[in-house]
Write a structure and sequence with these properties.
SH3 type barrels, mainly beta, two-stranded antiparallel ribbon
C-alpha cells in the first residue's frame, strides 16, 4: 500500500501487518463490539508473549503523523 493511500476499515483482511513502530502482527479477523456494534480488529503480536488484542477498525486503519509525515498505523505485508 502506498503511503499516500488510506486503508478503508472495511478492507482490513486477515494476514500480517507491520505497525509504524516496526513490530509485526497477525490480523485474525474483524469482530463486532457487543454494545456499540463497532467493528474491532482482532490481532496478535508476532513477538513476545503473544495473546490476542482488539483495536477499533477505524483506529487500525487510520494514518498517524510521525516527524511531520503521515503514514499508516498498520501496513499490510
Amino acid at each position: 500500500m502506498n503511503r499516500d493511500q488510506r486503508m478503508n476499515p472495511a478492507d482490513i483482511a486477515p494476514g500480517r501487518y507491520r505497525h509504524y513502530k516496526g513490530n509485526e502482527y497477525e490480523v485474525i479477523g474483524i469482530a463486532t463490539h457487543s454494545e456499540t456494534l463497532e467493528a474491532m480488529v482482532v490481532y496478535r503480536p508476532l513477538y513476545g508473549e503473544g495473546g490476542l488484542w482488539v483495536r477499533p477498525a477505524a483506529m487500525f486503519a487510520e494514518q498517524v503523523v510521525i516527524d511531520g509525515r503521515s503514514r499508516p498505523r498498520f501496513e499490510k505485508l
